[in-house]
Structure formats: structure tokens, C-alpha cells
Amino acid sequence: MLQLPELRQEQPARDEAEAARLTQLAQLMTTTAPLPDLRDLAPAVRQLFPEPTYEVGCGGSHIWLHRADDPRRLACILDHYQ
Fold it and tell me: pTM here?
């Protein structure tokens, strides 16, 4: 079954650069076709939010993103079933 990614931003951007990255991520969500597995989207998210500043993790139905110096999630990408 194909999954439509949905972005949920959980914290405000820390600065203009992060705001720009989050905007690019939101645009990526609107242009991404349905996927059989959201893990296929993780490499693109990691490119927008690179280490060591950010950490990106994923499972088959979600991708989480947080700042390396903050344990709270910055954003989460879920399939439309979550």
C-alpha cells in the first residue's frame, strides 16, 4: 500500500537557516509521490538536515527529526494512517 507523507512540525525554527530548511522540507512533502515505505524519503531529509547538527531516524511509517543538542523532536513525517 502506498503512503502519503504528512509533515508535523513540533517546534519553531531556531533561526532563519533552520526555517528555510523546514520550508524546503514542507515543499518536499507536497511534491513527493505516494511511497510504499517512508524510509525511501529519509535520504532526502538527511540531505536537508545533515549531521552533526541534526539527527534523522526512521521506521516504515515515520521519519523523525531532531537537533543533535535537543532531545525533543523538531518534526515528524508520518504516513496518512498515523
Answer: 0.90
